[in-house]
Design a protein that fits this description.
The complex is a heterodimer of chains A (563) and B (166).
Chain A lengths: L1 E3 H11 L4 E4 L6 H8 L4 E4 L3 H15 L3 E5 L3 H4 L2 H9 L4 E7 L15 H4 L6 E4 L6 H13 L5 E7 H5 L1 E3 L20 H13 L3 E5 L1 H5 L3 H11 L3 E3 L14 E4 L6 H9 L2 E5 L5 H4 L10 E6 L13 E4 L2 H8 L10 H13 L14 H12 L4 E4 L3 H9 L8 E2 L10 H11 L5 E6 L10 H6 L5 E6 L4 H10 L15 H8 L2 E5 L5 H10 L5 E6 L27
Parallel strand pairs in A: 2-3, 2-4, 4-5, 5-7, 6-7, 9-10, 9-12, 10-11, 12-13, 13-14, 15-16, 15-17, 17-18, 18-20, 19-20
Antiparallel strand pairs in A: 1-8
Helix pairs in contact in A: 1-2, 1-7, 3-5, 3-18, 11-14, 16-17, 16-22
Chain B lengths: L1 E10 L4 H12 L2 E9 L5 E10 L1 H13 L3 E6 L5 E12 L5 H10 L3 E5 L3 E8 L1 H11 L4 E6 L3 E4 L1 H8 L1
Antiparallel strand pairs in B: 1-3, 1-4, 2-3, 5-7, 5-8, 5-9, 6-7
The chains are: A alpha/beta (563), B alpha+beta (166).
């Protein structure tokens, strides 16, 4: 069969089960867009390539499938960079297709030429530049395979324009993927599992520290079974939100810099720490020398390089979280209770609950809004966040029930992620309520995607917790720089209501606490367009508790009983 | 901090060297020397990388290298019985008064003179790193005009492999 490169590309995408791609056309991808014109694959037209890649990322996080985006050469491709780095840090499976100038022009500084494989080398799991149209099918198979297996991550394929237009004799190959240097990790070391089980069975004060790896390997059910069988309290990382139900009596909420006091205290006291699908990130551990100082540490992770990278551990288990937990479960003794340990934790929970100041007349507390969103959605929605205070409040005050319900840029901390990610999530899960909890700074970083959300009639709710500040940076300036608010005052901002309306979205401004619930209810009724709610919140509300950077987890500011 | 020699087999494709070099730079590991060339299989290249670090760093280096899709195998051959060699070219000042002295040193080190200029000689030598260091020191008093070392290449001894297989 005679086919153009771009037609083979479409064929390969379909074979991989791709039904939607996010992208932005341009000169070098004209042949690809021409093939897309006849393809059953749905294309979502973003308003900026960064919006496209974050949307593909949100789609992947919400669905568990590989997200796909397309951008043209040069600036199109470089606009993907932040999104690729975001996905890389959070281990999200993406395939990013970038156009490239014609083969004969590569290296000649041609119009819109950028060395995107060179640029993305350190932020991709792997990348390719197509050299022959004949290799396309193999590369596409490899790219999806690499993106979705082991520790997932983004893969870039750079596609020179001429190779997409070139017609070749195409015979579909039945060969599977075979890469000498890349094998899918299967199985688990039984010896290590036995050692781990012994340690867990002996534990008096165990804690599970669960992260994004639990969600990536669909191990939430196994995690819950283990926690409930052995009565082990569970704390999750930001990336692990939803890996364990927030309302479960064993849940300690989030740990780390803005974790709960009881989670951080439990880490300090525990005698066994079961770390599942985590990487001992500095925002989690604080001063690493004093992290879980009394504990035997069991570390389960699919990426061998994570073992011992930040923290020396006692029992490493290199495996998918799911497989490791499945192997562990039958070897664990069911516990009736761990009464002493639970009593201690219960006391911490009573003494140091998450708390914030009351709403007063004309003063909305941002945390209150997050709690109301939870009440009204009953935890059934998908929450995306931007980065900063909004992100931390969204993690603290909403109880995540299930995996893939909290989408946030944890590793890279990318402002402007939440809204386009919400677009991707809504495309992946049209029946779910999708809500972006945003700040007034972050939302302006990709506000142009309102055009996309309106075009595709996506009823996403954007809740701007508007304090007219770059709040998290202001908080640090208040705490560590004598209140010198250097360039964090963002009082000069657009009228978000008018802006929403200009795009064809619904806009509301809420300035009184008593109007919060009504506004959210109204927004939840809208079915055919996005809603922007501009909540004017207490300008100087801070996120607490807080572990100052580089401090030990038990040295927390705020959120204690004297507040 | 000790020096480790890693023998790394990789796919022989453009860009692989960049990936490895980028990884070392990005993670802050120090490359002492890096050589690369094809093996008996034209699809596979072998890199010999000398890197400085404690055991934990070397373990990380090795694990991070394995994460590169085009890296096939990483072996730390520091402890194993291995043969390592380096090649050096030294252009040394050599007027008629000192030529005889230089030739004598060349003989002692079993090196070779590969070029004779009016006022200089180019000497070629191979050996392990200690020998090359010693050679360099011996010529320094005469005045070294130019010097180039290939960096180390290494291979595990047949005898050590036999022991391992048993």
């Amino acid at each position: 069969m005679k086919l153009k490169g771009a037609e083979i590309l479409m064929h390969c995408l379909e074979k991989e089960g791709v039904d939607v791609v996010f992208g932005y056309p341009g000169g070098a991808v004209l042949p690809i867009y021409d093939a897309l014109y006849d393809s059953p694959i749905r294309h979502i037209l973003a308003r900026h390539e960064q919006g496209a890649v974050h949307a593909a990322d949100g789609y992947a996080r919400a669905s568990g499938k590989v997200g796909v985006c397309i951008a043209t050469s040069g600036p199109g491709a470089t606009n993907l960079v932040t999104g690729i780095a975001t996905a890389y840090m959070d281990s999200v499976p993406l395939v990013c297709l970038t156009g490239q100038v014609a083969s004969s022009l590569i290296g000649k500084d041609a119009f819109q030429e950028a060395d995107i494989t060179g640029i993305t080398l350190p932020i991709t799991k792997h990348n390719y530049q197509l050299e022959r149209t004949e290799d396309l099918e193999r590369i596409m198979k490899e790219a999806f395979h690499i993106a979705r297996t082991n520790r997932p991550g983004p893969v870039v394929i750079d596609l020179p324009k001429d190779l997409m237009a070139k017609v070749i004799d195409f015979e579909e190959s039945n060969e599977g993927v075979s890469i000498r240097g890349y094998r899918v990790m299967k199985g688990v070391n039984t010896g290590q599992i036995i050692s781990a089980a012994e340690v867990i069975n002996q534990a008096q004060k165990p804690v599970i520290y669960a992260g994004g790896g639990v969600i990536a390997s669909n191990a939430a059910a196994e995690l819950k079974e283990m926690a409930e069988k052995c009565k082990i309290p569970v704390t999750t990382t930001l990336m692990g939100m939803g890996a364990f139900p927030g309302m479960n009596y064993l849940s300690l909420g989030m740990l780390g810099m803005h974790g709960t006091r009881y989670a951080n205290y439990a880490i300090g006291e525990c005698d066994v720490l079961i770390a599942v699908g985590v990487r001992f990130d500095d925002r989690v551990t604080g001063k690493i020398q004093t992290f879980a100082p009394n504990a035997k540490i069991i570390h389960i992770d699919i990426d061998a390089a994570e073992i011992g990278k930040n923290m020396a551990v006692h029992i490493p288990i290199v495996s998918q979280a799911k497989e490791a937990l499945q192997a562990l479960l039958p070897r664990l003794e069911a516990r009736e209770e761990l009464s002493e340990w639970h009593k201690i934790i219960g006391r911490w929970k009573d003494d140091f609950p998450l708390r914030y100041g009351e709403c007063e007349a004309g003063r909305i507390m941002p945390q209150h809004i997050v709690e109301k969103i939870y009440d009204l959605t009953q935890g059934d929605g998908i929450i995306t966040t931007e980065v900063g205070q909004n992100q931390m409040w969204a993690a603290q005050y909403y109880q995540y029930k299930e995996p893939r319900s909290f989408l946030s840029s944890g590793g890279l901390g990318t402002m402007g992620f939440g809204f386009p990610a919400a677009i991707g999530a809504k495309i992946a899960c049209p029946d779910k309520k999708v809500i972006d909890i945003a700040g007034d700074g972050s939302i302006q970083m990709n506000i142009q995607e309102l055009g996309t959300a309106v075009q595709y009639k996506l009823p996403i709710i954007i809740c701007i917790l508007n304090n007219h500040f770059l709040g998290m940076v202001r908080q640090w300036q208040g705490l560590f720089y004598e209140g010198r608010y250097s360039y964090t005052d963002m009082s000069h901002q657009p009228d978000f209501v008018k802006l929403a309306e200009a795009y064809g979205a619904v806009g509301m401004r809420i300035t009184r606490p008593e109007d919060v619930e009504g506004a959210l209810q109204e927004a939840l009724q809208v079915t055919d367009r996005p809603v922007v709610i501009d909540f004017w919140v207490d300008r100087e509300a801070d996120v607490y508790p807080m572990v100052p950077p580089g401090e030990s987890l038990f040295n927390m500011l705020g959120g204690d009983s004297d507040d | 901090m000790t020096k480790h020699t890693l023998s790394v087999t990789v796919e022989n494709r453009p860009g692989v060297l960049t990936r490895v070099a980028t990884l070392f730079r990005r993670r802050g590991y120090n490359i002492d020397s890096l050589t690369v060339g094809t093996t008996e299989n034209p699809c596979i290249s072998r890199m010999t990388i000398v890197v400085e670090g404690d055991d934990m760093i070397i373990e990380q280096v090795s694990k991070q290298l394995y994460k590169l899709v085009e890296v096939i195998k990483v072996v730390d051959i520091t402890q194993e019985g291995s043969v390592d060699r380096e090649l050096v070219l030294i252009k040394v000042k050599a007027d008629n008064n000192v030529r005889a002295d230089i030739v004598q040193i060349v003989d002692i080190f079993r090196a070779r003179i590969v070029d004779i200029g009016r006022n200089s000689l180019i000497i070629e030598a191979t050996g392990d790193q200690r020998k090359i260091d010693a050679l360099e020191d011996s010529f320094r008093p005469f005045g070294i005009i130019e010097l180039v070392r290939t960096g180390k290449v290494a291979m595990v001894r047949g005898t050590s492999e036999d022991i391992k297989k048993r």
